[in-house]
Amino acid sequence: MVASIQRTTYLDKIIERGVLFLLIFTPLAIGTVQPWSISIMEIAAFIVFGAWLLKARARIGGETSGVGSREPGVWGKTMIILLIGFALLIILQLVPLPPSVVSVLSPGTSSIYTQFSPPGDNSWRTLSIYPEASTEELFKLLAYAAVFIVIINHYRTREQVSSIIRTIVIMGCFLAVFAVVQKMTWNGNLFWVYPLREGLNPMGPYINRNHFAGYMEMAIPLALAMVLYSATRLEIPERMPFSERINAMAGSDPFSAVVFFFLSALVMSGALFMSLSRGGMLGFAAGLALFALMARSRRSLRKRTGMLIVAGLAIFVFVILAGWGRIEDRFAELGEETKTKRIEIWTDSMGIVRDFPLWGTGLGTFSDTYLRYQSTSPQLLFDHAHNDYIELLTDTGLVGFTLVMGMIGLFWHSLVKAWKERRSRFVTSMATGGFAAVAALSVHSITDFNLHIPANALLLTIIAAITYATVFNVNGGRSA
User: Fold this and answer.
1) Which of 89, 127, 208, 215 is deepest in the core (most CB within 10 A)?
2) Is the Cα torsion angle 331, 333, 339, 344 positive or negative in sign?
């Protein structure tokens, strides 16, 4: 019995330290966009998943591998069915099929094979026009899914949730400070040693400033969630002079947490606006708006939202006004004819959707397909559609798009419904931050491809999973 308990404790450490390793490693590894870093991420994710499977198999102390104390019900089960359906779709794209079947399922794909194959070639082909790329993307998705499954099943306590959120916030602050220092001492090399080609706009360890902004806009709402929760724990003396109230609060642990996480949010907000990412700014604004609306809707949080309003005003004055001229110039570029406009890429991409409507061209094949439809900037090679939703449509067709949108809809429906029923201030605060972080990147994804940057895709996965675990797994009364 003792040996079994020790084994479970050891597996717990592998799971939790593995998740923390992924949170720290993936952004620092240049966003995990290179094959070596992607391999490390996938191996670490599968090790974490394997440790969880071993623990679930042991079933120590009657613990099960279910989602926890609050069942997500039919909505959660339906979401899992849709996830399995999407995985099966990608597998279908990778299975070699007879030419007659390919021509029925995807005439566009069959046309490409006919055009580039020798006459009379009846070799079996895949629906994906580049199966190697689709296989690579499938492994990434499996890694994300493995981490998601582990978190929603393993994380059950406030301490576990707080550990992940603190790590994300601290990592975000580190990246922000690193970005500022690197910008001030820029020598043309990332990390001062990694050479970059001209024309790139790096920020911190990210080659693209938009993806740095994507990380910031997800981390900031979590810092604000910690501010909100810590503020609800503050005991503000009544009938005392203002200065004495401040002195009475200043020595408390909740006040220290409020100050720390507020300053963290301020630092990250400054770095986000310094990146001059328009999509990042819009996503950040959308996340803050949702955060404020959700916080105001809960009576237990409403009394402390005044602090968040003060925080928002401080961010506006300190960050936006300080660099308003540069921000205004960035948005003014939208009207310049010499700039490549994203809407032109999106319009051309609709040609792919027209020719590959149901099953798409294969996950991860956008860059291989888009050249045939590109009508603008012929000197440029576009790896992505600069819109994650359109790229999902081109790569997986209406079938894949419908499955993913269904999962997203069910995720929001089931979690918001359960969130409304929770009374724990910790649960409502942390989940509010998680919702805002997911919403921020969802808006940013309209104009960029953050979900094709593994570091950001994994961070979104972890935030969504920890929000799910917080709402359904973490217990606690109103004062918790």
Assistant:
1) 215
2) positive
Query: By C-alpha distance, which of 61, 128, 50 is closest to 395?
Result: 128
Q: Would you give the DSSP letter of residue 359?
A: T
Q: Which two tokens stand for residue 387?
A: 């819109």
Longest dimension (CA), the chain: 91
* 350: three-class secondary structure by DSSP: helix
CA dist 294 and 435 (Å) reads: 9
Whether the CB-CB separation of 432 and 294 falls below 8 Å is answered with: yes
Residue 270, C-beta contacts closer than 8 angstroms, at least 6 positions apart: 176, 318, 319
Q: Which of 319, 379, 317, 384 is nearest to 348 (CA)?
A: 384
User: Nearest CA to 52 among 5, 4, 15, 23?
Assistant: 15
DSSP secondary structure, 106-122, as one string: -HHHHHHHHHHS-TT--
Q: Residue 192 region, left (φ>0) first, then alpha (ψ -120 to 50), else beta?
A: left
Identify the DSSP state of 339.
S
Closest CA to 285 of 362, 369, 220: 220
Which residues are within 8 A (CB) of 162 and not within 5 positions of it... i.e. 6 or more apart?
Answer: none
Which tokens belong to 165?
């959120």
CA distance 284 to 466: 20
At 286, is the secondary structure helix, strand, or coil? helix
pLDDT in tens, 105-121: 999 999 999 888 888 78
